[in-house]
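Batch job 17 of 40 flagged for manual review because the log was empty.
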Amino acid sequence: MAQGEPQPLVSVIVVNYHGADDTITCLRALAEHDYPELELICVDNSVSRDEAARIREAVPQARVVEAGRNTGFAGGCNLGAKHAKGTVLGFLNNDARPAPGWVSAAVAELRAQPRVAAVASKVLDWDGTGTDFVDGGLTWFGMGYKRHAGSPLKDVPAAEHEVAKDVLFGTGSAMFVRTAVFAELGGFDERFFMFYEDVDLGWRLNLRGWRVRYVPESLTFHRHHGTMASVDAPETGRETFLLERNALAALYKNLSDETLVRALPAALALAVRRATARGELDATQLDLEQGVGPIESGDVAIPRTTLAGILAIDQFVEQLPSLAESRAVEQAARVRTDADLLPLLRKALEPAYPLPRYLAAHDILVEAFGIEKAFGQRRKILVLTGDALTERMAGPAIRAWNIALALAAEHDVHLITTNPLATPPAAPFRVSAGKHRELEAPIAWADVVILQGHVLELAPSLKKEHSGKIVVADLYDPMHLELLEQGKGVADDKRAADLAGVTRVLDAQIERGDFFLCASERQRHLWLGHLAALGRLSPRLYDADPTTQSLLAVVPFGLSPQAPVRTGPGLRSTLGLGGTDHVVLWAGGVYSWFDPLTLVRAIDTLRRRRGDVRLVFLGMKHPNPEVAEMDIGTRTIRLADSLGLTGKHVHFNEQWVPYHERQNWLLDANCGVTTHYEHVETTFAFRTRVLDYLWAGLPIVTTDGDSFADLVRAERLGVVVPAEDADALAAALEKCLYDEEFAAGCVERIAVVAQRYTWPEALKPLVEFCRDPRPAADRLPGSADLVTTPAVRGRALVRRDVDLVREYLAAGGAGELARRVGGRVVKVARQRLSGGPGGLVPRLGSGARSRRSPRG
């Protein structure tokens, strides 16, 4: 941290239970700690008030909170958190001591990593030679454990304890949590009393998309079980009871439905076998198959270690009603799958107990209940589009289809269109149509929802701030810019209203999304500006990733990785064109932002010297009936008619070529063309038809101004011409059609460039995100500022206001001062009328200073 940089207040909570000597030693070490902003809170769980008095007298710097009863470690920590003022909570066992830098190392990690909710400290034994906590693990039956605990530090690989890493949980003996996140999750689960409450908290944090980070520089030393040893003994079975019961409770709360249905019955059966094996109980003594001897009806002696396991199951059942309520909350809030967390479990199939009868049962249950498969459940991904899914698909549907196809290799994918036209081809994933009322069930099913267009407006549950779903917004189509051109033919007021409506749709996506897709670097700049304008480009989000690549990725429209192969008749036989005709193909629809008129005029010019030139429009009628006919198509046909070109040099395919047949038309062409006007839509457009030209190896003629024009020019894939220049366009078409050497060079270079735009390449950022999806850093539940500006009080307040008065007088004299004060009086009056905060002097200069130049 930089010298003099403000630091968050950290409230360290120490729980005492009949361990005043240890507690005083711990608090004194904290009072002398090197972190400057520290609040010490001691929660006394002792029944007698004597220990609280001793602690207050010995360490006056600490605030002592008397619980009045033994609330356990979980309850004591939660009580301390309620009295804490810090934005970071530190938890330290009373039989532990911090090393220098314990707090500052944790705070540095929290400030540098906004996605990290908790820091797990490195914990060694009292003399620093043995390992206590350097990593956490979790068994499939719910028992959290400290990996390498009890091992000499010298025997633990350096990579296991010297390197920071993500963990499932930190040990409650030494850890830090963001206060706001701790409150969001309701703190530790007090039903646990003690043991595994830290495992449960870390598990819940991870499920909600937060990270728990082991930071070895945050070091403490722990006299393990110092407090427990003073109040209990292992042979009582009480500790075993808590460990067994709490493992089942954590398992029940946090596993998904699909995993729990397998794991819970097996875990209960294994708990019984663990109990009988621990007590070396003869499990066959009541089995008639073993033979009938003298009748014995007396009580059977049961070791406490066996009884503890049986009673733990009994009390787990007793807690089930309240645990079920907690489970509903956790499952609704989770955004991570069990499979996502599998790496953090380290060795989920670890049996944990080296007892022969127990180990045999473990293997039987793992096999019988398919436990290994249960923890490998595939992620559920829902892809939503508003476009028609048919044999004749347009751009949005084609993109949604290929997104689903790419993700189906690793996940369970369901593609849904809200369009009534849905007769899709066969697919290796589920495809269906649904009205907005029918979307709630698929959304509830999904872990990740990928949407495009207006679909978010049909799914209000997704708009909720913490819906428990990861939302990917596909912004490859800047609809508002298209509407500027598309709406020119409607009344001014309706055009303005339509534009405002589409902009609100995009605003809603940008405010809700966790990950965004765009089609080009140009679009990326556009959407970064939109994110910034809506306040999404916040310090928290920026600090999580200054590049913003993990938030907004370039995912262009793609093309098939397989080269086009003819499967049927193409444009020549369909339209009656000759085998030697030189064909220019317009692949795609004719929309308002395109300029087919200049293209028709260029053909009229070119055909005068090249009589075999032919221009073919691939599709005039959009396959989605909800897309309105545009006047530009009619005007194009009229122009061709008036010049005598229709049916001779210009040909219109009135329908839409089926998606799986388009290669037949492409392979019949000699070059591809796209022409447009010079306006803002062009600047950020991504002409997907150009990808078909790359796929089919067609030299490209394009109007300047969009991202593909830059590509064609830079990679020499054809010719770029100025907007609305018919002569230049005619010359460019002639070069691509009739200069065989130039055309061959274009084809050769296109083959290389096309590989960059295949769907597997284009979708890589989305595929990577879906392998480890998380909420955006500013959307994590419980996010809050760690460092806030302290209120100005006393003499400092007077000095500040005097300085402001001088500044206003120097800037504009008494009039400027009166204006400032008058404005502030009005603002305070409004705040007081609305019940908000008031006060004239403390806020006098807030507006003036925010408007000053940083250099001024």
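Reviewer: the log was empty due to a logging misconfiguration, but the result itself is present. The chain is about 45% helix and 15% strand. Unflagging and moving on to job 18.
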